[in-house]
Amino acid sequence: MVAPQRELTAQQGVGKAPPSPGERKWSGGLSFDVRLAGLLGVLLVLCAVGYATRPDSFLTEANISTMLRLAAAIGVVSVGMTFVIISGGIDLSVGSIVALSSVWMTTVATQSYGPAVMVLCALLVGLGCGLVNGLLISYGKIVPFIATLAMYASARGLAERLSGRRTQVVTETGFTTFFRGAFLGVPVLIWMLALVFAIGWVVLNRTTFGRRTFAVGGNAEAARLAGINVKRHTALVYGIAGLCCGIAALMVVARTTSGASTNGLFYELDAIAAVVIGGTLLSGGRGTLIGTLIGVLIFTVLNSIFTQNNLDTDIQNIAKGVIIIAAVLLQGITARRRRVLKT
Amino acid sequence: MSEPLLTMSGIVKTFPGVRALDGVDLEVREGEVHCLLGQNGAGKSTLIKVLAGAHQPDAGTITWRGAPAVLSSPVAALRLGVATMYQELDLVPGISVAENIFLGHERARFGFSRRGAMRQRAVGLMRRLGHPEIRPDREVGLLSAAGQQLVSMARALVHDARLIVMDEPTAALASDEVDNLFRIVGELTAAGVAVVYISHRLEEIRRIGSRVTVLKDGRTVASGLPADTPTNELVDLMSGRKVEAVFPVRQASTADERREVLVVRGLTRHGEFRDVSFTVHAGEIFGIAGLVGSGRSEVLETVFGARKPDAGSVTVDGRALRPGSVADAVRAGIGLAPEERKSQGLLLELPVAHNVTLASLPAYSRAGFTDRARELRDSRATLERLDLRPADPRRLVGTFSGGNQQKAVVARWLVRGCRVLLLDEPTRGVDVGARAELYRLIHELAAEGVAVVLVSSEVPEVLGLADRVLVLREGEVAAQRPAAELTEAAVLDIVMEGSAVSEIADVTEEAV
Predict the structure, then answer these.
(1) How far is CA B144 from CA A228, B87, B127, B147, B150, in A?
(2) A25 in B contact zone (CB under 8 Å)
(3) Residue A36: inside a domain
(4) What tens digit of pLDDT does each residue of B69-122 get?
(5) Using CA of residue B113, residue B116, residue B120, residue B125, what is the dihedral sign?
(6) Do A8 and B364 touch (CB under 8 A)?
(7) Cross-chain Cβ contact A26/B331 below 8 Å
(8) Domain B6-238, what fold?
(9) Which residues span the membrane (chain B) (predicted)?
(10) pLDDT tens across B214-246, in order?
(11) How far is A88 from chain B (nearest CA, A)?
């Protein structure tokens, strides 16, 4: 596209006409740019490696189902984390909130009310913790890192206190039958993961709420000067992250048939890693849930390759670190190229 | 006559879209106070950044004590003997006075910092500056503005600089502090140090200046004038920018017969502005002129609710606005195109359409879902109306030129159907062709009945566009008259008259 010629007076001479910018357009959250394609390539390569090393078992229905069920909880947490990071924040407390929710919903008292109350309890505890984070950050003006660090410590502490550091076994069979069951041949946990991702995608890309999330993270001052209630919005975003933790707690409890204060350990790191390699800017304002999903799957497949081949987890962690750094370096390079485009 | 200490000739510096310096000459002799004069945007700040090694010129030569010199970095400039005291103090607030003075060149032996030696040197410097009570261990953030100014000066002195650049050093000082500053300047020049002095206060220039160089539109229009050159001569040199030609013709406004839309009464924010009152009618363009730091932008942002006033009221169509509430101002129909387009106005990573509907999202949603078809349609229509090219609402706003970005900000408020439009420096960083379009747009909006408030550093722009003009000087209304009764020289006169030293603390940096 050629920039229109302007009449310039000789006296001011004001440099050149704006450079013709690339065809950078918005496609309504469906953008499938080079980086996403690259990520998908990485995922496929990992799948190929898995198949090459264990052709008999890797791409079987059973293993794929196992992988996805393992990915479910961290995937749901990552959806909430994507919202938080796009809005310009960070949430270090997600793992602890998962632990607290899982413990609270499996206490003897809660279980005595039946499965519906257990589910409600997990969701409310998660939402509540998230909103506390959000209120402290937006109205208490505590930086997200510190506010959620405090929640990281105290939520797990409370979980330990509630459970007496004992694993609480789920005796309520209605709960386990439903959440460990399958629907149309697909495990319920995988349905839940898909559903949360779908809802998250719609909210982020098709609603006013999602639009404001991008605005707050991209330029909070511009959002404020456009009349958006930035504080309330920030609080709500952390509430969403907390709610996702509550859903993830349901999944963890269903998978392990128990609630424990050690649930959700390091979820915050795994979720941040998935979001970041998925192409969401850590500084906010730009990101995609599709990228996050691929990020989660990359780590899941990696995990499966190592367990299937009986390899040590230490090498797995090294590989994880390398993938994170490679993805972020790649982002830096593309970001620099974009900046050159802009000036 | 001895050889000049510094000679700069034909300095050119271009930024994307703007030629900030377009052939500047400057000659500074040893032991003189050389004053730089010029309106906002004349290129003073860019010139001193070149001198400080912070910007590299695109063309031109710099001679230092008879030999060609390259100021490749701030460190290189310091090593040569050029120290700069920036207007916005570049100190680290959380560390001590001594640590600030030696920041970046700490004295050390075997890797251990020589704290004692640095402290002693700091004590000596503060005594020389007439303020031995400022202890070297004090945390700089706890000092007053004047105290910080002194630390900044000590930092220049510790390098044994041959040339010290002072950018509006008195802006934050009370009058006895100014006397002290001038005494120090006198001592420095007596020792052969040259000072390049920037100030908008002519009487200061008369008091301590030796010679004056006047900049206009990035060029030197007069150099080496004696400091006692008559005021009107200096003002004439500074004014007369040749941009009038692009203002569209506009028939005399009948504004006074129309309805009052925006009424501001006694608006005050301590330390920023006092008792500002004005009324804007439907279809009127109301201009606010004044130097950077006179409180222009602050007034505008307070009217918009982005800052909370200490006193005073804002009324739109007879309804009083809740003080300090942007949401209320937006609801009442006020729109603001802020001064810093990129950092305050736009979401550069998002498409134009999202930027345009940002202030009217509820109107573009059904049950929380964005009506994207209508959003695209309306955005495109508005872009076409504003002649924003290319009128593609899906392009990322960051890929547009400055003028088109400004139009996108204006479009945001048009889509909302605003009654009052506040424009803060709408043409900053916008090339001439796009300026003319923005001017025409402002006229069109006024013709449709929008009340426009325009703040600009460029006096001709205010005079060329506005029906009535309010001149702010150090936070106070210095004049309020119909634009037809004012000339550029008259406005400059009013602006510079205010040499009375006051304690306006919040002085923002002059834009490049």
Answers:
(1) 36, 15, 17, 5, 10
(2) yes
(3) no
(4) 888 888 888 888 898 888 766 788 888 888 888 887 777 777 777 788 888 888
(5) positive
(6) no
(7) no
(8) Rossmann fold (3.40.50)
(9) none
(10) 888 888 888 888 888 887 788 778 775 545 446
(11) 13
